[in-house]
Amino acid sequence: QCNKIDALDTFHRQVFEEPTKIGIIGSGCSVSTEPTASISHYYNLVQVSCIASSPAFRDRQLFPRYFQLLPTDASLAITYMGLIEFYQWKRVAIIVQMENLFTVAMDELKVLLNDNSIEYSETELVIDEAGVNGGPPNSTIVNLDSVFDESSRIFIISTYEPLAREIICEAYRKGYRYPRHLFFMIPWYVNGWWRFEADSYGCTVAEREDTLEYSMTVMNLPFAAYLNMSTTTDTGHEGTDNGRGMTVREYFDKVEEYLERPPLNVTLYDDVAPVCYDAMWTLALALNNTITEFETNISLSDLAYEAGNMPNRNETFRMENFTYQNDVVMETMFKHLEDTDFLGVSGDVTFNEVGIRRVTQYLILQFRKNSSKRIVNEEIGVWSTNASLVYTKNSTEETTWPFGIPYDGVSVVIVINTVHASLTSIMIIFSTVGILFSVACLVFNFYFRNQTLIRLSSPNLNYLIGSGAILLYLAIIVTVLPADTAVFSSVVCNLRVWLTGFGYSLCYGTILVKMWRVYYIFSNPSTLKKANLHDWMLAIMVLCFVILDLVMLVIFSLVEGLRGNLRAERVLDKEASSTTTGEQGRIKEFYVYVCDSLAWDIFLGIFYGYKAFLQICGLFLAFATRKVKVKGLDDAKWIAGTIYITSIVLAITILALYTLNDFVNRHTAVFTGGLLIGTTFIMAFVFASKMYALYKDPEGKSVFDRTRPSDRPQASNPSDGVERVVG
């Protein structure tokens, strides 16, 4: 009845009633066995149990003369751990009923999980009312709504049957079933335990079976593995053939004959009879060996008589003379129980140092639907403590997991997003056209470099502008490349910064110094000073901008050198939402690589702050030279327009760098679009305007014409002054 009080009452009645008992087989379950096993040694009785399995019985201080034929539930922890490692699970969830029978076993499992760096969560069930007289709880779970850790997929359930049924029904309501979820159930439930209380817990038997399908049970290797092997218990007794014991199959034949029951499904552990049969043989063999030792050891017999307060008869001690004061008999039987080693109908019977049956192999069972669409618990493999899982009964990994091995948590598939193909194609096409246009402009500049109009625009400096534009177009192409690895993304990040920095300094820096020269010409009346502003001087100024960029980039590289310079970090793509796909409920999460480093924000602030300062200088010069109307210096008007546009583009680009970094397509579109617009406007204003002017005035006759008088003092001969300045 699994009741402590009834067990103690029965124990004392049996002890004090005739005849005198020599040993005990029992009690029933762990709850009723615990109180009897803790006091039986006071009566000098050994006790053998065939049903109890609590890990608490390993305590030799509390249960000094107790032996157990079922392995403890704690021994299953080793197999659980082995299966977890075999299937490469890294996270499990434990659902445990707060009873010593279950908590001790799960504590053992938690130690193994910690030792193997396996993450786990634990839910302790809260029951609203305990069972009658300390028996197993029979009421419902208070915290049922929170019993499942929603981030886990592999659940190890350690409860009595009623709560297991309630948990499975709750799992059904939540839609927890294979292939997304997996349950490990207690092995010693009665056969078909899920079919009991069919109208309870808000789900039908069929719904429970749907939920349980493909879940597992782990148990010690049962008698099914020994069907055709001969036991060593009946050897030499009447009715045996050739001195061998009966086979396990013969045992079941006799059970069928005696009980007149249909053939047993011996692949299921649906009866404790084989274990209890071996428990009787265990005690019988120990008793037989004790009698034999008394027969061969007169000194031991004398001690037994003395321990029983009986006169020394100098003869073999007879077991019918045993009394509850005779500790010699108990210790002798205890010694022979420790030495137990035989093949019984339930398998090899030996005990470890604390009296628990040794089990080195475990049977792995899986809930599957048979041809009648009913759930049965079928053998799929054997787990050996010194080996691994071996599939049996024609089972394979494919038949065990038809939709794949369940994931140990929310299955996340990482998808790396790159720049959209259409954006990449558009930008590469436009940038390629821009590069070709830049090359054409440089050829034009070289071919017409001696024309007055082109000579006044400083053709040598124009080479720098064209070269810078090509670098900026290349930066656009590099930025839109589909970088889907961290290494390639890091290369792209660094190339983009270097190409953009040098391209901007060559392109915009040259425009700035040319603008400054125009400002200098028309704001300084000293002709002597004007005569010193040659192209090579301005080129040196541009080179200073480039060197400053180089210094900043080198310093940044040295600061970040130990961390791989500017690197790509994987972050969640805010432009794409996670999606759930497949039978196993995989969640696709979309990530992008972004440029990042510990000093990245500081570097951006300094780098683009410096560029912004140059833009401000350019805006000032553009405003200061707005009244210059000499056609030969038509650059001033176009360059001013370029400065205005590039200033706006630069502001938008910097803003995009800080706000859209995690939005790969938007960030790339704004950044590359800004570079494309700014660079193209520069090339159009600097070169296209000259092409048109040269087409309209090939001889350059009106190059020094004014559109209106200037208010500023001018050189007596504008042509002479300007040509000396730019020559």
From TrEMBL:
Transmembrane segments: 426-448, 460-483, 495-516, 536-559, 602-624, 636-658, 670-688
Domain G-protein coupled receptors family 3 profile: 423-699
InterPro entries given in the database record: ANF_lig-bd_rcpt, GPCR3_GABA-B, GPCR_3, GPCR_3_C, Peripla_BP_I
Location in the cell: Membrane
Any one Gene Ontology cellular component term annotated for this protein: G protein-coupled receptor heterodimeric complex
Residues in coiled coil: none
Basic and acidic residues bias (residue ranges): 701-711
One of the GO BP terms on file: gamma-aminobutyric acid signaling pathway
GO molecular function terms listed in the Swiss-Prot or TrEMBL record: G protein-coupled GABA receptor activity
Keywords for this protein: G-protein coupled receptor, Glycoprotein, Membrane, Receptor, Transducer, Transmembrane, Transmembrane helix
CDD domains: 7tmC_GABA-B-like (cd15047), PBP1_GABAb_receptor (cd06366)
Source organism of this protein record: Geodia barretti
Principal place of residence: membrane
Gene3D superfamilies referenced in this protein's UniProt entry, alphabetically: 3.40.50.2300
Membrane topology type: Multi-pass membrane protein
The protein's name in its UniProt record: Gamma-aminobutyric acid type B receptor subunit 1
Region (Disordered) residue spans: 701-727
Pfam families registered for this protein in UniProt: 7tm_3, ANF_receptor
